[in-house]
Amino acid sequence: MTVHFIGAGPGAVDLLTLRARDLIAAAPVCLYAGSLVPPEMLEICPPGARTVDTALMTLDEITGEMVRAHRHGLDVARLASGDPSVFSAMAEQMRRLEAEGVPYDVCPGVPAYAAAAAALGRELTVPTVAQTVTLTRIAARATPMPENEGLDKLGAAGGTVVLHLAVHRIAEVVDALAPSYGGDCPAAVVAHASRAHEIVLRGTLEQMPKAVDEAGIQRTAVIIVGEALAARHFPDSHLYSADRCRAPEGPAQ
């Protein structure tokens, strides 16, 4: 049988992909992080499904559940918040499943940064303003960052910076990015994006620590920094320019 790593999206059940919904509805075992996946998403599980909250489990305990399900001939829906391609711990789970000979596949989901950008009503890449988006985090109380991926170094590259798992250290984020971006750079924090209790904070980089503290945000939030958040005067994209050649392509050679 198969373990399905499923991107559960940012939280809103109606942002699940159709494939994700169908996989959950067919899996007799569902593993999820209760701190990130809303209870109503579990209502999609089939009647009698075994649902396991992994929030307080170790990696070995989690993979142990999947291996046991496989040996009993049961498919597993392994829900990951957002999209499993970033910050999901999927890689180390796959490594263990491969060692046990357990097959798996991946169903993508709506990433948290996309839901946050939607809540802000902004595009993160704007012509001549920002054409690069950096997705990262900070190392505090977590796995160390690679030597060349410190926030100060990444910030020097410019573009739009998006931080996951970092809102609890927002002051450190500001200190690291301010030398490159300036304290008056547009910034935002979106907590619980797409959910009924979503919180959206807008302002400048230097204003974010106070705003986050006053809002009581401690987790489940995305930090976005960059001029794209407030860009108004920029040229139209060449993609839809009247000067762009739109001759039909010939047959493949």
UniProtKB/TrEMBL annotation:
Name of this protein: Precorrin-4 C(11)-methyltransferase
Family, similarity comment: Belongs to the precorrin methyltransferase family.
Keyword Transferase among record annotations: yes
Signal peptide start-end: none
Keywords associated with the record: Cobalamin biosynthesis, Methyltransferase, S-adenosyl-L-methionine, Transferase
A Pfam family recorded for this sequence: TP_methylase
Gene Ontology terms for molecular function: precorrin-4 C11-methyltransferase activity
CDD domains cross-referenced by the UniProt entry: Precorrin-4_C11-MT
EC numbers, comma separated: 2.1.1.133
GO terms under biological process: methylation
Keyword Transferase: yes
Ranges of residues in domain Tetrapyrrole methylase: 2-208
Regions annotated as coiled coil: none
Protein's pathway: Cofactor biosynthesis; adenosylcobalamin biosynthesis
